[in-house]
Amino acid sequence: MKKQIIGMAALGLMIAAPALADENVTSKFKLSIGGFVKLDYANNSEKIGPLAPASGAIPKTNAADGLRSESEFTARQSRLWFKSSGPDLFGAKTGALIEGDFYGDMSGATEAAQLRMRLAYATLDWTNTQVLFGQYWDTFGPMAASTVDFRQGASFGAPNSPRVPQLRATQKYNMGESNSITTVLALQNPTQAETGAAAATPGANYEWTNMVNAAGQVMFSSKALGVAPGFYGMSNKPFTVGLFGLYGSGKLQAGVTNLTLPSWGYGAYAFLPILKSSDGKSRANTASLEAQVAMASNMPFNNGTANQLMSSGKAGAKGYDFDVELKAYATQDLGMTFGYGRRGVLNAGFYAEETQQSNYNVYGNVSYDLNAAVRVATEYEYLRTNYINNTNATAAIRNDFGQSHTIRGAIYYFF
Fold first, then answer.
1. Which residue would you say has higher pLDDT here, 351 or 149?
2. What is the mean pLDDT of residues 398-408?
3. How many CB atoms lie within 10 A of CB 71?
4. Quick one: average pLDDT of 10-16?
5. Minimum mean pLDDT among 44-58, 269-283, 361-375: which range?
6. Do 75 and 51 contact (CB within 8 A), yes or no?
7. CATH H superfamily, domain 2-414
8. pTM over 0.90
9. 59: which DSSP letter?
10. At residue 67, what are phi and psi to the nearest 5 degrees?
């Protein structure tokens, strides 16, 4: 009897399986899937890993890691996304996207890389208005460098690294057929909970409490100059110039003392088509120039500043960022990028401990699309960190530095 019951149950599950599978794998809304497989190779003159360090700190030339070269492969940047479009709401088209890569556990073995949430957001889109909620790119600093290096210049002049939970509203104002102004306003999480040495205040227990920040952009765009390839050459972009900023605060606990310190930043952005696309779609014989400059305080969470606090622990670290990039396509498939990014402190004299005085990156890369799916690319990067230590009497040590000459190669398969 027992065997009969088990057999009937198994038969029932087999009959139900097609219906269950159909319900599990089919979205009730339109669903698409995409992403890419990417194999990276890096040959570094110093031991920094397969991509530039997140902090921007290059090991000193006289340190153990600074005396070791390395050669590494990684496929962890490979990416997967799911995109959905749903029913209209209040006259707006609705949609959502979830995207992940495999940098979820940096301490794990190569074969144990964990899926990490990069983006997870939903949108309501009217003709000139969009409301977005979820995890999306930081509003502060719209530029990301088009490097083969996964860091994309974030720690060396282009502070657009983090993807943060936020509520964002975008409004476009058309000014004729060619010109428009776009405003962005977002409430976003700063992800700035750092402690101990990360707060640049050694010897004390400093603990941060997150406070939601406000950020915004105002951009003017014009198609009068035509369009040219933007980030990674993935789409063409018109002349764009504008301002961006962020303001918020963080609560800092140092022992039994509580402080509230502001986080702020502001900057300017520009994109200029130098050689425009012949038909608005082709990349052949095009060139573009992109640049961004920013000043910030108490903003290490998006690499706006190298540190969070000055030595006193009672004022935010202040810094500047600058990035400029030239992109050119000789043909539809052959592209070249050259750039320079620099980040530095504005108040070096206020640090008693060792501090990153400046970080910069000089890079150039060439990419070629073998077909619509496969791209190969190679890149040279010079990464450097200048250190200062105001309490060290030996000038040679006080002004130490680290540098890395990096040769990269990558193979992409887009799907």
1. 149
2. 89
3. 10
4. 39
5. 44-58
6. no
7. Porin (2.40.160.10)
8. no
9. P
10. -100, 5
